[in-house]
Amino acid sequence: MLITRRSLLVGAAVLATAAGCSNGGGAAPSSAASSAAAGGAGGDVGVFTWWADGSEKEGLDALIALFKTKYPKNTFVNLAVAGGSGSNAKAKLASDLANKNPPDSFQGHAGAELTDYIDNEQIEPVDDIMKALGGASVFPQTLLDLITVGGHVYGVPCDIHRANMVWTNSGLLSKAGITAPPATVAAWIADLQKVKASGVATPLSIGGTWTQTELFESVLAANLGSSAYTQLFSKGGKWDAAGVKQSITDYATILGYANTVSDGDDWPAATVMAADGKAAYNLMGDWALAEFTSKGLTWGKEYSSFPLTGNGEQLFGFLADAFTLPVGAKNAGGAKDWLNLVGGAEGQLAFNLKKGSIPPRTDVPSSSFGEYQQKTMTSFKNDKIVPSIAHGAAVSLAWSSEINTAMSAFYQSRNADALQSALVAAHAKYAA
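^ that's the sequence the OP posted. Answer follows.
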């Protein structure tokens, strides 16, 4: 099936590539790359995302402002639905697509998640747009592979994110006597205990279910290593293995140091807890960067971050956002204008500067970004790439939904055997 092929491409092909996300400096983005010929038809352009809060909204706002300038005949219609990682938005989108009422473009995660829309014939190829934007000459081929089926490209990537980042409050770690990032999950658990012993009531801040899935996948990848973790999403994946059971045990221990949350609690509040000194740690994708920045804090001083790692590997928890051209879009010409903007160098610079991500295009100069994003660009070139479960790179929407349901049940019960059985069952149902 398509899902397996796509999942393995993330874990293997991206791992093998040396393609960078930046040229390491150099010329500013060219206007030709940022505004390739498109529809230009004018009228309303309805764009569906889940970027309704925090740095995500700031990034979208930057794109909207640029869109109004470059395509003044068009009127941007913001169809964003709140809910981090799109848990609420995807349900609304599924209903709209099923009822033949698609937006003009919608956000999806590059990787296995796009296969649901392709298999259901809900999105069209965008080969002409990607060719005009430069194709493989400016986008890493391995990223293009994730959005290509049957020789056709089905999305325009606008960012690359790292999901397995642990954000830290420097003052609280200093108080606990912690001076270096942990090398393993076990070492991180020991540090959580040190923070607790230092008098911090909540060593780790978490949000609702999808943030817990992101935390668990990071523990799982760190414990298993990149190869064994990636194999979990193949037909022969061993979710009943001892390493998975140990990861569940470790995850349960980690939750014991966290705040109490409900399913629908989103990520910004959890990240702000670390920024405000109410928690020492918060595991969150690097969209968290802008939350700290908005507080006037400087990375490497008042706060810092490290990727959760283990087995002697540096791991890059991979996800990427892409925009699509839905079948039956009311304003396909305006949608193509939007796709050219988000796929162009100028749009990717404006967007990623705000969102904390890095641009997929290799012609956006790294010198335009701050220290954290420059380090992320280097990490994407050099580290072991592991696909995110929570963000659609590793599994389909249906598979992800079952995992999230199991994670929610585990948060209430802490029944390790039940969680592992649910993960085994989901794999048997969806892996090909």
